[in-house]
Specification:
126 residues; alpha+beta
């Protein structure tokens, strides 16, 4: 498996783990200094992220629409766009950037930033 295939597989597992609340996967694959900037601008360290993951996701499904992986030495950037649906049926899209570092033979996520653009609003009356 190439390093790109490996990082893409880790990205797929990240999404799967969010949907099912797989705290153990994140405990193993997030760096100790991991930081997540959520779509609401809240900032979570690893402990807070694990706690939020354990609470369960409101998202029922998430489909990756575009994924680009770039490498800079021992750093990989995953830039992606996905479409999602909540358990209540609300749909939306999100863009994210995850930063992975390679050390001691393994890739760890050190940073994640998520953006959810607002849903298109209905046209205003004149």
């Amino acid at each position: 498996m190439t390093r790109e295939q490996l990082v893409r597989a880790l990205n797929d597992e990240y999404i799967r783990s969010i949907l099912i609340g797989d705290v153990a996967w994140f405990r193993d694959h997030l760096a100790d200094e991991f930081v997540c900037i959520e779509s609401d601008a809240s900032v979570l360290d690893k402990a807070a992220f694990l706690q939020r993951t354990a609470e369960g996701s409101t998202v029922a499904s998430y489909n990756l629409d575009e994924v680009a992986v770039s490498f800079y030495g021992n750093v990989a950037l995953v830039r992606a766009t996905g479409s999602w649906m909540t358990k209540e049926g609300t749909r939306g899209i999100s863009h994210y950037v995850d930063v992975y570092t390679h050390s001691l033979g393994e890739w760890k996520v050190v940073s994640a930033q998520i953006t959810r653009p607002p849903s298109p609003s209905s046209p205003s009356s004149p």
